[in-house]
């Protein structure tokens, strides 16, 4: 059976990414895979992560922009050569993807504002106005950007509120990288500090994600 999978805030931990996808038996010809931004910086292999994400996108996955990718593009515009070979790929990344009943966006939205009218800075960096406000939209927003332990849940846990699912489990803070199976309500989680990347935790979360029964 095909699955809808999502992963966010990889932050250079490409080996953990591959391990999770292998463990979850990701099949590009069957599953839908969504990358939710922030592939670079903080971790050991930003370029390797970009190569991996680009490869998966070429083979059917989907990827959106995070604030770190936007910063890379801004650096290029200011004359930096660091990310110049990735300019085309970074520019190709959309700010969000709607896939009913989900909306994949890096940081969140301002409720009540049509998607086409949302501010780029909000989509990439918003926190409290999105996290604290009830959503009017008939969708579940799957987002990263804010490590979930900062939202009052244990390190490595997903964060759930009505119509909101936070999946940044802190890889950028040397905690966990998580692959989320939205179809079956499964979280595959790995500690990025484990040098062998051998142990993958398999956790269940609510099957009625934020009011949308799968």
Descriptive account of the structure:
The protein has 214 residues and is α/β, with parallel strands linked by helices. The chain has a single domain, classed as 4-Layer Sandwich (Purple Acid Phosphatase, chain A, domain 2). The chain is 23% helix and 23% strand. The protein has a 6-stranded mixed β-sheet, with helices on one face. It has a 5-stranded mixed β-sheet with strand order 4-5-6-8-7, with no helix packed on it. A two-stranded antiparallel sheet has the order 12-13. Strand 1, helix 1 and strand 2 form a beta-alpha-beta unit. Helix 1 packs parallel to helix 2. The longest helix has 13 residues. It starts with a strand and ends with a strand.
Strand content: 15-25%
CATH topology (fold) name = Purple Acid Phosphatase, chain A, domain 2
Query: How would you spell out the order of helices and strands?
Result: EHEHEHHEEHHEEEEEEEE
Count of individual domains: 1
The rough form would be described as: globular
Secondary-structure topology with pairs:
Layout lengths: L3 E4 L6 H10 L8 E4 L10 H13 L3 E2 L3 H11 L9 H6 L3 E4 L2 E4 L14 H6 L2 H4 L8 E4 L15 E3 L2 E3 L9 E6 L4 E6 L8 E5 L3 E2 L2 E2 L1
What are the key terms here?
214 residues; alpha/beta; Purple Acid Phosphatase, chain A, domain 2; six-stranded mixed beta sheet; five-stranded mixed beta sheet; 23% helix; disordered C terminus
Summarize this entry quickly.
The protein contains six helices and 13 strands.
């Amino acid at each position: 059976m095909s699955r809808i999978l999502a992963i966010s805030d990889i932050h250079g931990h490409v080996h953990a990414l591959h391990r999770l996808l292998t463990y979850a038996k990701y099949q590009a010809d069957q599953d839908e895979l969504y990358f939710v931004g922030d592939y670079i910086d903080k971790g050991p292999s930003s370029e390797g992560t970009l190569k991996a994400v680009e490869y998966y996108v070429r083979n059917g996955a989907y990827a959106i922009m995070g604030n770190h990718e936007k910063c890379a593009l801004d650096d290029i515009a200011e004359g930096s050569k660091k990310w110049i070979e990735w300019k085309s790929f970074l520019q190709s990344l959309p700010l969000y993807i709607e896939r009913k009943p989900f909306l994949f966006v890096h940081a969140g939205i301002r409720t009540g504002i049509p998607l086409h009218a949302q501010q780029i800075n909000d989509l990439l960096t918003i926190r409290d106005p999105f996290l604290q406000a009830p959503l009017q939209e008939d969708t579940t927003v799957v987002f990263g950007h804010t490590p979930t332990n900062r939202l009052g849940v244990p390190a490595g846990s997903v964060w759930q509120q009505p119509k909101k699912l936070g999946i940044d489990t802190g890889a950028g803070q040397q905690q966990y990288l998580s692959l989320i199976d939205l179809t079956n309500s499964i979280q595959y989680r790995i500690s990025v500090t484990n040098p062998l990347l051998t142990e993958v935790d398999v956790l269940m979360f609510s099957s009625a994600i934020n009011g949308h029964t799968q």
